[in-house]
Design goal:
three-stranded mixed beta sheet, 501 residues, globular, homodimer
């Protein structure tokens, strides 16, 4: 067994190296690459990702996994070895089901769809995108068929991002969540307590914004010896190894929140990856277990910490030192209210905590309806606008600010959106459990101390990488099944207080 | 034939993509990578370069080349197709002669040697490096044996950097060059005209240094849409495609020459790569034809242009605008003399134009003597110091500033050094020919116009990439065989004037 396991790790290490190389190429593309580099880069990336895929689905890995599976039965099921064999087998079997021709078609079609989406969004003209979106959907329907039988047609798509999670679970959670969130948003709209966030819209020196953000995430525990922050048009986190996990942000000179909360969010993702056990290095388990669990980490640092009163008790005077003329006269309470303003809006990525999930549910419902063939692609803009009005009371003035706003569908990504909301839910589930384990948590945050907070997540979540399926990991950490209740309670308490509800 | 050629390009394109990925990883390693990334990066690079090598030496490429070689006989020998088949066959046959075990041994031994060299240099202790250098030399001797028969034992090493050039040619050139250079350096030492370069050693704002350098290379014709400049500990140029050729430099706040001439030098390399014909993209010919020809381009822009009077007629007032308090009172002539100070020194990379080649000849002679077993590794420090005294009249106070100063041997690189000097020679050969084709060249440079200068090199050198062997290319461009005469005349004229010889 030892020889075979060693050989398996060697082959997986090769795949991991290729994926890391692709990640570096992608990072460079988004940060420093000159415009001329674009065409060559798409070739480099196509070759590297194709080789990584070929190397992963090769027969030898299949044979090794087959041989090791029976032997792994004798191991501790929580050992690295057993988990690697189990999770890699799962992924291997999935990837082997997808024919090479489909992969090639998908790559070609999404490349065109991405271009037509960019054009359509620029011109706010959905029909420009419509035929390509049709083709993408058709390919996704074919994709789903490779995984028959399934309980729900959406299951195979969801499983790519949340291994093991079922569509019926998400539907149930969202049904619990939707009425409560709509109710909360309405109550806030009718509240007599109106909040002004004008203080966030001033001229803020970009270098100071940058420095303050980095000061905060250093205090959180983001390790700059094993990472760095650069600028990019869209913030992201990328990992080349456990010891090189980088983040990016963008800075708006006229609005404080963009860079600050972007940095906090991405540092949350990055600290997860920096905290994974070395023993999983160069295996497919060297990464977060799912998008939702990843998002639980980013949203926790951004919102549960970064938009909380205790955090600003610790850091507001530092921020004032950076911006004395802009914020010197602004009281902590007013600043806290400003960063927590709730206002139904058109664009998901700019949405506040109270409305964000409604944007997600809308997309999830549309994806389901499309796959179940209860909705035609051509009807998307109209249904989008109806639902925006129903959930948020706003109507997009055009498709660019409506159905065309997100990049995901143009890249063939379906089944992804719900993970953003599930991340919010998981973040509060973990938080509630952590508060029991660390009774003076709030006090520590007020003192700018995050060791226990980070340490708790390192132990319960980070170190395990991809060893456990996401809902299994959440259950291990919290003792509970996935639930909307903690998040609803969190929203009601926080915004009830801010808006005197 | 067309099908086979297409397939060959496809396979070569894959290799090129892998090499480009490795280049991006290398660039990042030298510029932005956090310290923690080092270990993972060495794994990524090992995998990518191994795959690139495996993909290049595979049987299918050999069969395609074999089939295409006979057919290529009917093609115009200067066509891309004919040159690609010829040059790739040449390289393929070379690489196939080197057994995989040797490559693995070499990688292992040089990895250790590099570490012991770093330690030895730090502690200025040659014996720390000696056993590993012995092993590296032993492997290089084995390497040479893969290419028997050869005229000279050094030929196979030289051929890796200067395809087609023979050791006997280099020996002959150097024998012509050495006495003239030694004579010139002695005459300068005895000259009554002493030059003071203290003006270069002031406090120069780093951003201004950076901006001035970039202003100059933009005027030269370096295309920032297809490249960029970043900081690194050691300046270098790297190419990911014809449309993404990047340079780096380092900046010393207390010395003007480092960043400025570093930038000009690297831009020379980069403009060569940016000027290669698109039709060679993603083939092994998408790059300069040899190190010497590459160095002819970098040294031309750095020295023949950047250290010339006409160039400073155009740019000195701009430099004074950047540094009014440092250079406002310094006359153009004094500045020109300062940047052309000749002073025998210990360190090759800091040597001036008049002494530089002597550093190279010393290394070349030691490499020959070692390979011919007329010199033992253990005697290197002593012989090094003797030759330094003989050629330059200086003696290293320790091995760190003597035999341990260069990285090359620790990486197993032998046969490389002479290309630096050959580059100087080729630069002046090209320059002399260009002056005939562009009679008002000097006037153009005085006006800061470089279009004709760059255009001439684009046409004669750059566009051809690796299509022609280096000395063939030089002959095509100048009508002459490689010769030391133009360079000697250049040095004598320039420094005769500066030093009133």
């Amino acid at each position: 067994m030892e020889e075979q396991y060693k050989r398996l790790l060697e082959l997986l290490g090769e795949v991991s190296d290729l994926q890391a190389a692709a990640a570096v190429l992608g990072w460079d593309q988004q940060t420093y690459m000159p415009p001329g580099g674009a065409q060559g880069r798409s070739m480099h990336l196509a070759t590297i990702t194709r080789l990584a895929h070929e190397k992963f689905v090769n027969e030898e890995i299949g044979e090794l996994l087959e041989a090791l599976k029976s032997e792994a039965a004798d191991l501790d099921p929580d050992s690295d070895e057993a988990c690697i064999v189990k999770q890699v087998s799962r992924e291997y079997e999935k990837q082997r089901k997808v024919p090479g021709e489909w992969v090639a078609d998908f790559s070609r079609v999404t490349s065109m769809a991405h271009q037509s989406w960019e054009k359509a969004r620029k011109e706010s003209d959905f029909p420009t995108f419509e035929p390509d979106l049709e083709s993408v959907f058709e390919l996704r329907r074919q994709y789903v068929d490779f995984f028959t039988p399934y309980d729900h047609i959406y299951d195979p798509l969801l499983d790519d991002f949340e291994p093991g999670l079922k569509t019926s679970d998400v539907i149930q959670i969202f049904e619990e969540l939707r009425p409560k969130q709509v109710e909360l948003v309405q109550a806030i709209a009718e509240s007599s307590n109106s909040i002004d966030d004008a203080v966030l819209y001033q001229s803020f020196d970009e270098t100071k914004q940058w420095d303050f953000g980095e000061e905060v995430i250093k205090a959180f525990g983001y390790d700059f010896d094993r990472g760095r922050q650069d600028k990019s048009p869209h913030p992201f986190t990328t990992s080349f190894s456990i010891d090189d996990v980088r983040i990016t942000t963008r800075v708006r000179p006229d609005f404080l929140s963009t860079a600050l909360f972007g940095t906090l969010h991405e540092a949350g993702h990055a600290m997860y990856e920096q905290g994974i056990s070395d023993s999983l290095a160069r295996t497919p388990l060297e990464g977060g277990t799912s998008l939702a669990v990843h998002e639980s980490q980013s949203r926790m640092w951004e919102n549960l910490v970064g938009r909380s009163k205790p955090f600003w008790v610790a850091f507001y005077s530092r921020l004032q030192e950076y911006f004395p003329s802009e914020l010197g006269d602004v009281k902590l309470d007013d600043f806290y209210q400003a960063i927590n303003l709730v206002e139904p809006s058109l664009i998901r990525v700019e949405a506040d905590e109270a409305t964000y999930n409604l944007h997600i549910m809308l997309r999830f419902e549309l994806e389901l309806a499309l796959l179940e063939q209860q909705l035609k692609v051509s009807d998307l803009p109209e249904v989008w606008n109806q639902k925006m009005d129903e959930y948020l009371g706003v109507t997009p003035p055009n498709d660019a600010e409506g159905v065309l706003q997100d990049i995901h569908w143009s890249m063939g990504i379906f089944g992804y959106f719900s993970t953003y909301s599930l991340g919010n839910l998981i973040a509060t589930m973990l938080w509630d459990k952590m508060k029991i384990d660390i009774p003076d948590l709030e006090k520590q945050i007020e003192l700018g101390k995050f060791d226990d907070l980070l340490g708790w997540h390192r132990e319960k979540i980070h170190q395990h990488g991809g060893k456990y399926e996401p809902m299994d990991l959440v259950k291990r950490a919290t003792g509970s099944e996935l639930s909307a209740e903690p998040y609803i309670r969190y929203l009601q308490t926080k915004f009830g207080e801010i808006y005197d509800l």
